[in-house]
Write a structure and sequence with these properties.
Blueprint: H1 5-21, E1 38-40, E2 43-47, E3 52-63, E4 66-76, E5 81-91, E6 97-106, E7 112-120, E8 126-135, E9 139-148, E10 163-173, E11 178-188, E12 191-202, E13 211-212, E14 216-220, E15 224-236, E16 239-247, E17 253-263, E18 266-281, E19 287-303, E20 308-317, H2 322-325, E21 333-344, E22 347-358, E23 369-379, E24 389-400, E25 407-422, E26 428-443, E27 453-467, E28 470-473, E29 477-490, E30 531-542, E31 547-557, E32 578-585, E33 591-598, E34 605-616, E35 622-631, E36 643-653, E37 658-667, E38 673-684, E39 688-697, E40 707-716
Antiparallel strand pairs: 1-3, 2-3, 3-4, 4-5, 5-6, 6-7, 7-8, 8-9, 9-10, 10-11, 11-12, 13-15, 14-15, 14-40, 15-16, 16-17, 17-18, 18-19, 19-20, 20-21, 21-22, 22-23, 23-24, 24-25, 25-26, 26-27, 27-29, 28-29, 29-30, 30-31, 31-32, 32-33, 33-34, 34-35, 35-36, 36-37, 37-38, 38-39, 39-40
């Protein structure tokens, strides 16, 4: 055996011992470098008769940043053995320190023995073992082992830490990548609180390994006490499955399954669940006990080439309250779709079919199935046509409802040209000339006296937007004043009453669309009246990124049609409502965004939206966020009264280990009251975490939620921390492969 191999062997063996104990130790790895070894000792003797080399007295070996010290090291060249004894210490280059009374290793690394093994790791973890042995080149066995990630008392290292694990025997099987325990005990402050005669788990270095996942225990007012157990199958690095069973004391048993697989060009994920003996509460308040309920969620994405990709989403449930009862999903409307889309230079194409399931309580309008929905958009190169850019778009949609309800087929084509002009004085003008044609076929129309019919229209417009930004440099900032205006000349379109309004109902006027040529959100309605808009934006922009901006603007119809926009939209009168926006960004301490809409005739507010967040105190110990929303109803949207809510959240880092946080949601509208609140207290140190969280939900007319939840969470470092098992993309086959 060469002298320099001893250090490599020692590093390798101690690293393997570390891996056999617990996850924190998994990062150590044997040295494969061929760097020279620096050896120093008081005496170095080579005995030709016994074929031994003996280094004695303050022996130190240094290689590749690692240092091995011992009172004596003996190299038995005949037996191919190495012995280190007396205050054996190995300092790894990552900061880990290993101690042993003595160590014996074979040169081929198939067998070895360590007595009195102790380790202090760079993350503060500690472990000990009375003795450790490597046999059959695949198993490492440790006896009377102890591990804790907690810091030991400096004055009394033998004092029991906050928590620790002891086991009579720990065996690491390198081939099976499995760690097993005999007579394992979890101790807190030296008191055993949990015991298991046999226990095993996968090697923490493995990204994927079949086995049981950490169980979950909780209580809610709707489910009662529940426990969730899961088993994970790792079929290969690119596919896996999980089965979970959750019995509850009040609402039967929930069983869920998940399957995931990655391919070289995409992935699929399938989720589903069935609840048996579940009590279903109807919207009338009648409880139907012992029901079977189910859901399925699935999605996938596939890249077929550099330009084409496709995908699907499937989301369905058996009834409205099922998903929220078991805290599976809080979505109000489930959307399923299948699509294909193409990206090529400046061109985009998408073909899809969409289906909706409304899971809100109450009588809701039936959502149509959309088949097909086709979009295609082509953009010319900048400057390619008369110094500007041309565009061409196609759109087709089919909306289908069950039985004798209204069905709609719509096809649209539009083309346009846009160019930007900037004068020498800084005046910026954008000119947009556009024309669109739409064709409709309607069956079972909801319009009285109409059943089936067709209609078409052409909608041309010319739109210009002009702005003149003025900038005044200041010492540490810049003052900007930017007046802006737009003018849209449009041709009047006389729609047949049979043309439906499926996608242009919810009209909202704000600073973002004030200067648009068409303020409707969809295609079913066109703004076929000439109109103008004007406003001014001013603000101060600091040189370090801080800013404060204010905007005020208004629109006017040059050819007023009181029936064009719905009542409450802010655009129904000749002069629109005033819209304003305030944005202030003072860095991490204070950020606020505010949007408002005021009635033009009396400045009565119609909408307020405020979002605010930031951090205060030393090192941002207090963080907060708040949101306030007030909106008056818009005709046709289904809301008949004003909506007003305030939401607030805050958290405070009391010290390095303790934190508290809270959140609340309050309705200030026509039925005011507290809606939801949470309060949490959290403790975290180097090895232990604890949280208690209380949540109260009051009745929500849309979701039906009304429950109380109390959660206790305890985390033991490297034991109570689990990440989602990973699966990898399958490697793309090479040319000529199957």
């Amino acid at each position: 055996m060469h002298l320099k191999n001893l250090l490599n062997i020692g590093v390798f063996f101690l690293a393997c011992l570390a891996v056999a104990v617990w996850p924190a130790l998994a990062r150590a790895a044997p040295s494969e470098v061929d760097d020279p070894v620096n050896l120093s000792a008081k005496t170095l003797v080579h005995n030709n008769n016994t074929q031994q080399i003996v280094a004695d007295g303050a022996v130190e070996m240094v290689q590749d940043g690692r240092i091995l010290r011992a009172d004596r090291i003996i190299f038995d060249l005949h037996e191919d053995l190495a012995y280190a004894m007396g205050n054996v210490v190995l300092l790894d280059k990552n900061g880990d320190v290993y101690f042993a009374e003595e160590m014996e290793l074979k040169g081929d690394l198939r067998e070895g023995f360590v007595k009195g093994l102790r380790a202090m790791l760079s993350d503060g973890s500690n472990f000990r073992a009375e003795k450790a042995q490597r046999v059959d080149s695949r198993k490492i066995s440790m006896e009377n082992a102890f591990y804790t990630p907690c810091k030991l008392c400096a004055d009394d290292p033998d004092k029991d830490p906050l928590w620790q694990i002891r086991a009579d025997k720990v065996v690491y099987d390198e081939a099976e990548k499995d760690i097993s325990y005999r007579n394992a005990r979890l101790e807190i402050l030296g008191l055993p609180i949990m015991y298991t005669p046999i226990f095993s788990h996968p090697d923490p270095r493995q990204k994927q390994k079949s086995g049981f996942l950490r169980p979950k225990l909780g209580w809610t007012s709707d489910l009662g006490v529940f426990m969730r157990g899961s088993y994970y199958w790792g079929f290969s690095r690119n596919k896996d499955a999980t089965l979970s069973v959750q019995p509850t004391s009040l609402n039967g048993v929930l069983t869920e399954a998940q399957y995931r697989q990655h391919f070289h060009n995409g992935f699929i994920e399938l989720n589903g669940g069935v609840a048996v003996n579940s009590d279903r509460t109807e919207e009338s308040g009648i409880v139907e006990p012992g029901k079977e309920r189910a859901y399925v969620f699935a999605n996938g994405r596939f890249d077929h080439s550099r330009t084409w990709r496709s995908g699907f989403d499937l989301n369905r449930t058996s009834d409205k309250g099922y998903l929220r009862l078991y805290d599976i999903s809080k979505e109000n409307v489930l959307e399923s779709q299948i699509f294909a889309e193409r990206f090529s230079n400046r061109n985009y194409t998408r073909i899809e079919a969409v289906s909706f399931q409304d899971v809100r309580l109450g009588n809701r309008l039936k959502q149509p199935e959309i088949l097909p929905l086709v979009q295609h958009r082509v953009y010319g190169a900048p400057g390619s046509l008369l110094g500007g850019r041309w565009t061409l778009g196609l759109n087709a949609a089919g909306l289908h409802r069950q039985t004798s309800q209204q069905d709609t087929l719509r096809g649209s084509i539009d083309t346009g040209w846009e160019r930007q002009f900037v004068s020498r004085g800084g005046l910026k003008t954008v000119v947009d000339a556009h024309i669109r044609g739409d064709a409709y076929h309607i069956r079972d129309s909801v319009v009285p006296g109409e059943t089936t019919g067709s209609d078409y229209r052409f909608f041309p417009y010319l739109h210009t937007k002009t702005s003149y930004p003025l900038v005044k440099p200041l010492k540490r900032s810049s003052l900007i004043i930017e007046p802006m205006a737009s003018l849209t000349l449009a041709h009047e379109v006389n729609d047949d009453p049979i043309v439906p309004n499926e996608d242009s109902i919810d009209v909202q006027l704000d600073s973002g669309n004030l200067f648009d040529a068409v303020r409707f959100p969809g295609l079913d309605r066109v703004e076929d009246r000439s109109h103008a808009a004007y406003g001014i934006k001013t603000g101060i922009h600091g040189h370090k990124g801080r800013k404060a901006e204010v905007f005020v603007g208004q629109s006017v119809q040059l050819d007023h049609d009181p029936m064009l926009f719905p009542t409450g939209s802010g655009l129904e009168d000749e002069y629109s409502d005033l819209v304003s926006a305030v944005n202030v960004d003072l860095g991490q301490h204070f950020i606020v965004n505010y949007k408002a809409q005021f009635d033009d005739s009396n400045l009565k507010p119609r909408r307020h939206e405020v979002q605010m967040s930031g951090n205060l105190g030393n090192n941002g110990a207090l963080d907060y966020d708040a949101r306030y929303v007030f909106a008056t109803p818009v005709a046709g949207t289904g809301f008949l009264e004003s909506r007003e809510q305030v939401q607030f959240g805050a958290g405070y880092q009391i010290n390095d280990t303790w934190r508290t946080d809270m959140s609340s949601l309050t309705d200030l509208g026509t039925e005011p009251g507290f809606r939801r609140g949470t309060l949490g207290l959290h403790y975290t140190d180097e090895c232990f975490s604890f949280s208690i969280i209380g949540q109260k939900n009051l009745i929500d007319r849309a979701s039906g939620e009304n429950d109380t939840t109390i959660l206790f969470r305890i985390g033991l470092k490297h034991l109570g921390e689990f990440s989602t098992p990973e699966i990898l993309l399958e490697k793309a086959p090479q040319d000529g492969s199957n």
